[in-house]
Amino acid sequence: MELNARIPDHPIEKMWTNHQFDMKLVNPANKRKYRVIVVGTGLAGGAAAATMGELGYNVECFTFHDSPRRAHSIAAQGGINAAKNYQGDGDSIHRLFYDTVKGGDFRSREANVHRLAELSLNIIDQAVAQGVPFAREYGGLLANRSFGGAQVSRTFYARGQTGQQLLLGVYQALERQVHAGTVNMHVRKEMMDVIVVDGQARGIVTRDLVSGKIEAHMADAVVLGTGGYSNVFFLSTNAKGCNVTATWRAHRRGAGFANPCFTQIHPTCIPQSGEYQSKLTLMSESLRNDGRIWVPKRAGDDRPAHQIPEGERDYYLERLYPSFGNLAPRDIASRRAKEMVDAGHGVGSMKNGVYLDFADAIGRLGKSAVEERYGNLFQMYEKITGEDPYQVPMRIYPAPHYTMGGLWVDYDLMTTVPGLFAIGEANFSDHGANRLGASALMQGLADGYFIVPTTIGNYLADGPKGGVDENHAAARDAVREVTESQNRLLETRGSRSVDSFHQELGRLMWNHCGMARTESGLEEALRKLPELREQFWRDVRVPGSADTLNQSLEKAGRVADFLEFAEVMCHDALTRDESCGAHFREEHVTEEGEARRDDENFAHGAVWEFKGVGEEPVRHQEPLTFEHVPLSQRSYK
Amino acid sequence: MNLTLHVWRQSGPRDEGRFETFKPEGITESMSFLDMLDLVNEEITVDGGEPIAFEHDCREGICGSCGMVVNGVAHGPEKLVTACQLHMRSFSDGDEIWVEPWRASAFPVMRDLVVDRSSFDRIIQAGGYVSIRTGSAQDANAIPVPKPNADRAFDAAACIGCGACVAACPNASAMLFTSAKAAHLSYLPQGQTERLERAVGMVAIHDEEGFGNCTNHGACQEVCPKGISVDYISRLNRDLLKANLTGVEPGD
Predict the structure, then answer these.
(1) Which of A188, A212, A472, B204 is deepest in the core (most CB within 10 A)?
(2) Per-residue confidence (pLDDT) for residue B251, from 0 to 100
(3) Min Cα separation B218/chain A (Å)
(4) CATH architecture of B118-246
(5) How far is Cα A24 from Cα A234, in angstroms, rounded to an integer?
């Protein structure tokens, strides 16, 4: 597997501008001769499909949802970063770039991150022009707030529904192109495989989720904007449908998978309330702007919060990180919460949370100001827990939320399979070992609106690929393999539901490849995973038939892929014998309890090559160099 | 909790459909309504039956996927929540619960509680956007928007496209959905250029798709999980009137 990041040979500040000039162009009149497939309609996929449609390409866009507007980007709450410096507080492109590289604990590629920081400006302009109703000040200009890991106020937001409003902007742009006839939208069609012909991505296999029809779709290039894989843990804040199938199938067809062990655990989620629970709910990290996190100083303290006097509370983030306080980065805030709960300081009936207290903020700002900022989050919390956060502190606990790992891509966002691009959370490119808050929306839209619609032209400019249709042997083989695998799931007729396997997988991964990892735990997971996978294929029960709307069958295919994927995730966590960002190996801790990086041996992206199910995958490396943000121990004290 | 659950079962669009009764065990008050359905489905699966098909995704009330009529009310007995945010603490031990899909001819039933809402996408295609090409925008702060207008635009933009308004309306009208999008854009300077064409275009498709007319019942507003106001319907009607008086045609 050749890893050439193709970083343009220009100074970093001018790299993207000059690269756009260097790239080959497709003549406007010729663009309609190209067919491009886009899978996924979130911020990345939807923006890419809409923009490529506007440019004149023939776009075939796919989603497994009933409408492009359902994509999981819709659930992002807190905001989107941009280096506009509208607050005049010292922000700049360089500072956003610097914060992102440092926040990622020096495991991302500088060139890509710098471009992201540059494009952050264009994103806000674009969204506002579309009518995205961002929060505004009384003078009519845009408002900002702060987010974890930054000391400037650069986050734009639309109450607690920023993802929804940005996605509706994307959705509307996409539907405009559907109306114009440049984008052909396929809803309720799930991508099951990539079709590779002569080493190039030339199409996909889909299953129609209503009729069950499995078919091939061919194109000149394929773009995956299919999101992340947090649902490998079963319980996560991801929507129930989020899955690894598209990226895993691409990996099986030759695309390198980078840093799969970099999974982010979000610090502010609602703790689990019982065993039956199917989904965890995230509360925006923006709550940490005004909420104070604390636990009782005495382990096992059962008193209700209001009976615990000030002097018997431990505001541990403020104590440990005086300059960032409650706004310490996500990985640190999560790990410290786990430490507190593990040491017996947990609160709530299951002792599985820490307090996030707004009493001071309500006293300082008044209830109405707090309601203005967080009203819908408070309402959501009350609906779920039955407790009123204006009266009693919220209880929070970390939960799997976002995955920094993903398909390896070069500077043009192309995977190791020519013609196969990966954008948004589906790729690995910008967040290193830890993503800062309000940066996911930024990256999805940068990739979708501005990067891939430009770089894809450079790939296509040599002329339409042609010569391959749905009857090509590679397409027919891929359709046959998908059909056979599906039939096998239906014919097994075992005794256990798909969900029961998914839950078991989730527990195994959370215990051994979750917030803290050890060599022995990972080795145990690697022993158990093949057994669980074997049991799944022997004993799973998938009711119903292939040619109807069959939600059990949909889930079964996704869980089958998670069972394969989990193994490479553990291999990655085991071989990355250091702690960095969200990847915390208990063997590598500083005296102060922080992650201890090993830059000498691990300043690289680990890129995995598939060798067969149950076969040991091969680990490749993309060395990372840090010329603009000097390698240093992260300090948020 | 002991409950009797009657759920609408329909194998496909051409099946007549019927209620099936379940007596699930192990239900607790802190479960969400969909956790409860998951549990019922787990039992059905292990017993060799076919689970109840229902749509859901984010399970936090924002994606708009879920939707079912619970005891005759779209999204169930609680105000301002979607079905996925409904918790069993809203019910009492011994309750009978009836669960049905949205019923409207513009939302055909596909299976059990799953309906086809693609008509909503087609209403948006008819003009529910600002025509702005990627990369052609001016600096964001060059378009100041008075805060009250920005807030009103946001209130309207909060619609999640779930379709409860249609399910609740005796005419199966989608005017609350349509007017919310029109109002979101018409409160903003960015939405003015195409304002009247948008109104005419979206309402024309709304009618074509088989949604009924609004006759001011207000049932939509009562069930809307996002509290979208019927005032937007009057606002849209005023724009339609203006368009008719000035001879505006739908945009192309």
Answers:
(1) A188
(2) 65
(3) 24
(4) Orthogonal Bundle (1.10)
(5) 44
Contacts of B225 in chain A (CB under 8 A): none
Given a cut of 60, is residue B238 above it in pLDDT?
yes
Best residue of A54, A166, A279, A547 to probe chain B, by most B CBs closer than 10 Å:
A279
For chain B, the domains span 4-111, 118-246
Residue corresponding to tokens 């343009």: A8
Total domains present in chain A = 3
B70: left (phi over 0), alpha (psi -120 to 50) or beta: beta
Q: Which residue has the tokens 């849209």?
A: B236
| Least-confidence region, from A262-276, B34-48, B124-138, B233-247 | A262-276
* Superfamily classification of domain B4-111: Beta-grasp domain (3.10.20.30)
pLDDT digits (tens, 9 = 90+) for A474-501: 999 999 999 999 999 999 999 999 999 9
pLDDT tens digits, one per residue of B183-218: 999 999 999 999 999 999 999 999 999 999 999 999
Q: Which of residues 69-88 of A touch B (CB under 8 A)?
A: 69-70, 72, 74-75, 84, 86
Identify residue A85 by its one-letter amino acid code: N
| Interface contact flag, B12 A541, Cβ < 8 Å | no
- Would you tell me which residues 531-550 of chain A have a C-beta closer than 8 angstroms to some C-beta of chain B? 541, 543-544, 548-549
Per-residue confidence band for A277, with pLDDT thresholds at 50, 70 and 90: confident
Contact B150 A133 (CB under 8 A): yes
Which of A202, A330, A435, A517 does the annotation list as catalytic? A330
- A493 a catalytic residue: no
Instruction: Decide the pairing of beta strands A221-224 and A35-39.
Output: parallel
Q: Which of B12, B65, B191 sits opposite A70 (nearest CB)?
A: B65
Could you say which of A65, A175, A552 has the minimum Cβ distance to residue B129?
A: A175
Are residues A242 and A347 both part of a single domain? no
CATH code of the domain in which A111 resides: 3.50.50.60
* CA–CA distance, B38 with B44 (Å, rounded to integer): 10
Please provide the average confidence, as pLDDT, over all residues in chain A. Answer: 95
> pLDDT tens digit string along B137-158?
999 999 999 999 999 999 999 9
Q: What is the mean pLDDT of chain B?
A: 96
Show the domain range for A589: 476-596
Q: What is the DSSP letter of B48?
A: T
A242: amino acid identity, one letter: C
Tell me if residue B75 falls in helix, strand or coil.
coil
A372: contact with B, CB 8 A cutoff: no
Contact yes or no for A67 and B120 at CB 8 A: yes
Strand B96-100 relative to strand B4-9, pairing? parallel
CA-to-CA distance for B118 and B101, rounded, in angstroms?
15
Q: Is B164 left (phi over 0), alpha (psi -120 to 50) or beta?
A: alpha
* A632: contact with B, CB 8 A cutoff: no
The alpha carbon of residue A31 is apart from the nearest alpha carbon of chain B, in Å, by: 16
Nearest CA in chain B to A174: B125
